[in-house]
Design a protein that fits this description.
The protein is an alpha+beta fold. It is 24% helix and 33% strand. A six-stranded mixed beta sheet has the order 6-7-8-3-9-10, sandwiched between helices. A five-stranded antiparallel beta sheet has the order 13-12-11-14-20.
């Protein structure tokens, strides 16, 4: 059986090479020695009996685009606020560039922040908004003009210098807010859901722009978002948070393809989950018997440390839907079922396939304009490569 094309958010994230330093304007990229790493050591933040951040330890490398990803109330914004100095940790230490800043105010940290609300001065022009921080620092007027012009070119707003914020689109206002933060040449930029107020199309455009800008300037970016696709597309690494703790840290493709916990598997994209028990092993594969007695193959490496009873998963876009009569080659896991839902999404079809014991499998199939897909009620096979099966720490025992 031949491989079929697969389109995933994780695959998109790995195919985004940034510009090389050699192609950048002289002096635009921050030298390695001036970038800032971030280290949180056993940081806890409590409000009375409520713990917002719970014994969190994390290292963000210098020059990295790092995202904190999670739903509302998971502690990601509180963590960002403590790094920025807007809140003090109840316990633990925060280090910026090797210096303990846990009790320092924001103005004593070489950090700037971009918020979801642009907070632009409506009575000032674009250039005046961008120059505001430089003027407060009493930077020479001749230098201010050059730095403002340089940063506006970087965010593609040259020619907009004399416009007021009210005459700009949401995306342009966000670029002004970004330029205002970057013009001060911070070693660390904090971004708190900065694209949340934009419409979907503009948000996708700004994701690429933010990644381009970060690649060019080389500043460490710490980005907070609840949007999974946003974090996957832009981040060098990301941390998935839940209940004040980090569930998993790693490059987007690694976290997506090999989630560590059932929470991560469900939060970062969609997953089909199953229970199974190790029945035998052969080489690099385990034979795992599902609850209905059907056996599937699971990579031994994926199951290490999880015991004999396993919580298994496979992503919907990894699965092929096949006629019952089509032969399936070696190395594929196969289950039978019937189509109970067929939704056309433009770029493909989303199916629900129910197996004989009532498990529902979500399947995403790319629209290749080939032969018609299966009809509702039609008996089919679903198949996926064994190596695409992952094993997670379960949310609860089944």
């Amino acid at each position: 059986m031949p491989d079929r094309p697969e389109t995933t958010m994780a695959a998109q994230a790995t195919a985004r090479p940034g510009p090389s330093s050699a192609s950048l304007p002289e002096g635009q990229r921050m030298p390695d020695s001036q970038r800032m790493d971030v280290r949180l050591s056993n940081v806890t933040k409590s409000y009375g009996t409520v713990t917002a951040v719970d014994d969190l330890s994390l290292v963000i490398e210098s020059g990295e685009f790092f995202s904190l990803l999670g739903s509302s109330g998971c502690g990601k914004t509180t963590t960002l606020s403590m790094v920025g100095g807007f809140q003090e940790p109840t316990s633990g230490q925060i280090y910026l560039g090797g210096t303990d800043v846990s009790r320092l105010p924001p103005y004593k940290r070489d950090v700037n922040t971009v918020f979801q609300s642009y907070a632009l001065f409506p009575h000032l022009t674009v250039a005046e908004n961008v120059a505001f921080g430089l003027k407060r620092k009493k930077v020479a007027k001749s230098e201010i003009a050059g730095r403002v012009a340089e940063i506006l070119r970087l965010v593609d707003l040259n020619g907009f210098e004399d416009r007021k914020p009210a005459l700009l689109s949401g995306g342009q206002q966000q670029r002004v807010a970004l330029a205002r933060a970057l013009v001060n040449r911070p070693k660390l930029l904090l971004l708190d859901e900065p694209l949340g107020a934009l419409d979907l199309k503009l948000r996708k455009q700004m994701q690429i722009e933010l990644k381009r800008i970060q690649s060019e300037v080389g500043i460490t970016f710490l980005y907070v978002t609840h949007d999974q696709e946003e974090a996957i597309v832009m981040s060098d690494r990301l941390a998935v948070m839940s209940n004040g703790k980090i569930e998993q840290v790693g490059p987007p493709d690694q976290v997506y393809d090999r989630p560590a916990t059932e929470f991560v598997a469900g939060f970062l994209g969609a997953s089909n989950m199953m229970w199974g028990e190790v029945h035998a092993e052969s080489g690099a594969m385990l034979a795992v018997r599902l609850e209905d007695g059907v056996e599937i193959a699971v990579p031994k490496s994926a199951a290490e440390g999880h015991g004999k009873r396993l919580r298994l998963g496979v992503r919907p876009e990894k699965i092929a839907v096949l006629p019952m009569s089509e032969p399936v080659g070696e190395g594929w896991n196969v289950l039978s079922g019937a189509i109970t839902l067929n939704v056309y999404t433009g770029i493909g079809h989303q199916y629900t396939v129910r197996d004989p014991v009532g498990r529902d499998f979500a399947v995403y199939v790319q629209n290749t304009q080939a032969a018609r897909g299966p009809a509702l009620g039609e008996a089919v096979q679903i198949a996926w490569r064994a190596e695409h099966t992952f094993v997670v720490t379960p949310s609860q025992q089944g």
